[in-house]
Amino acid sequence: PSALREVPIEIPAVRWDDIGGMHSVKQALQEAVEWPHKAQSAMSRLGAQPPRGVLLFGPPGCSKTLLARAVASEARLNFLAVKGGELVSKYVGESEKAIAGLFARARSTAPSIIFFDELDGLVGSRGGPEAGGGGTAGMSERLLSQLLTEMDGLLERGGVTVLAATNRPDCLDPALLRPGRFDRLIHVPLPDRDARVEILRVQLRCCPVAADVDVELLAVRTAGYSGADLAAVVREAGLAALEEDLGAEQVAMRHFETALRLVAPSVQPSTNM
Ligand code: ATP
């Protein structure tokens, strides 16, 4: 038995509508992931090559994971998600076996998506700082080459899409970004004002708000906030309403004021890539 857990297979239940803003990212994902599954013959008729692997990159908390789940859900693809570090084993050969097993399961459950969250944690740069001393460097080298072999092997088969996300594209081994590997890069940026309005509307769906709550104004006042930060603001506003009155039935603008004082943007402007 392997020391590494088997990756569960699911079709997630996230709709495009559950993700505020990000319209061009959704469009790019549909083209890169959904079309090759749905319109294979049309694509080959026009000589359009689907990307082999798709990499979502951008600051944390900006919906990369949600987007991956949504594209699987909307295209009805089986979804096998792994976090970078989860496949890393200290036992020689285990990680490579886990990767091979993962791709085998994806092929047997095709049409499917393998999603590597935090790809940098799986395979950092070979020369990079996390390669560290001898043992670790050797391990990530073998893991990387196993991953590349599996991706190259998908060439003829179709039916399996490889999707990955990272906050640190600069830490990835350049071999991963060559043609035929992760050859479609999609930037998932911090939300702009319009996107923040949409994200807040999504997050306020289940939150009864008082008439004085001005979502447009909240969007103006949350420049630099990620989607995850906005979720925290909504959560804190709800808590502030309850703190004031345990019987509260609505969240008012003053509760959002309190929340804005408590929740600061988590992403430094310089890391918006
Ligand atoms: P990380 O890099 O930290 O893994 P991520 O980019 O994968 O982050 P998610 O995990 O998808 O981000 O988002 C975190 C949470 O933030 C989501 O579960 C959701 O509650 C909220 N969120 C982020 N972006 C959006 C959005 N565009 N619309 C609605 N909710 C969002």
Give a written overview of the molecule.
The chain is an alpha/beta fold and 273 residues long. Helices cover 43% and strands 12% of the residues. The protein contains 10 helices and 6 strands, in the order βααβαβαβααββαααα. It has helices spanning 23-38, 40-45, 64-74, 94-108, 119-122, 134-153, 193-203, 215-220, 227-244, 253-262, and strands spanning 9-10, 53-57, 78-83, 112-117, 160-166, 182-187. The protein has a 6-stranded mixed beta sheet, sandwiched between helices. The radius of gyration is 21 Å and the shape is elongated. Residues 127-136 have low confidence and may be disordered. Residues 19-22, 60-66, 165, 167, 199, 202-203, 227-228, 231 line the site of adenosine-5'-triphosphate.
Strand content: 5-15%
Q: How many strand units?
A: 6
Largest sheet features: 6 strands, mixed
Identify the quaternary structure here.
single chain
Task: Give unreliable regions as ranges.
Answer: 127-136
The end-to-end distance, rounded to whole angstroms, is 42 Å
Q: What's the number of helices?
A: 10
SSE string, helix = H, strand = E?
EHHEHEHEHHEEHHHH
* Shape designation: elongated
Q: Measured on Cα atoms, how large is the radius of gyration?
A: 21 Å
Q: Return the structural class.
A: alpha/beta
Which hetero compounds are present in the coordinates? adenosine-5'-triphosphate
Mean pLDDT: 87
Protein name: AAA+ ATPase domain-containing protein
Write the layout of secondary structure elements.
Elements: E1 9-10, H1 23-38, H2 40-45, E2 53-57, H3 64-74, E3 78-83, H4 94-108, E4 112-117, H5 119-122, H6 134-153, E5 160-166, E6 182-187, H7 193-203, H8 215-220, H9 227-244, H10 253-262
Parallel strand pairs: 2-5, 2-6, 3-4, 4-5
Antiparallel strand pairs: 1-3
The chain binds adenosine-5'-triphosphate.
